[in-house]
């Protein structure tokens, strides 16, 4: 994506508007995939994710995330640990949750960056 000279973008990572599923839960001491709550992703970057949820979360909450998206013809799950950086109420009783990735497997990060670049290139054409 090209930025105009007047653009005041402060983000380090490209934001990609997507509609994919994400599951999350507050991270306690033991990491497992049971009890993850579903939510809808609104945008995604290699630095974090923004999603809508019916549950209010607190800033600095640590979450276990599992993002489900298609890679080619197959489904791919990406696992990450993230920290809530913002939670804003919407008028419909939902919340917009901004999460910064803290931990992500290097292989998953490479695939995520490739996914974002591929989608961003298609959006520019």
Give your account of this protein's structure.
The chain is an alpha+beta fold and 125 residues long. 15% of the residues lie in helices and 47% in strands. The protein is built from one helix and seven strands. A six-stranded antiparallel β-barrel has the order 2-3-4-7-6-5. Strand 3 and strand 4 form a beta hairpin. The chain is globular. The termini are close together.
How large, in whole angstroms, is the Cα Rg?
15 Å
Q: CATH homologous superfamily - what is it?
A: predicted glycosyltransferase like domains
From the N-terminal CA to the C-terminal CA, the straight-line distance is: 10 Å
Q: Looking at CATH, which topology would you report?
A: Thrombin, subunit H
Domains, number: 1
Question: In what order do the strands lie side by side in the largest sheet?
Answer: 2-3-4-7-6-5
Strand content: over 45%
Architecture, according to CATH?
Beta Barrel
**Helical region count?**
1
Structural class: alpha+beta
* Biggest sheet details: 6 strands, antiparallel, barrel
Q: Any low-confidence stretches, pLDDT <50, length ≥5?
A: 1-5
From the spread of the alpha carbons, the general shape counts as: globular
CATH class: Mainly Beta
H/E series, N to C?
EEEEEEEH
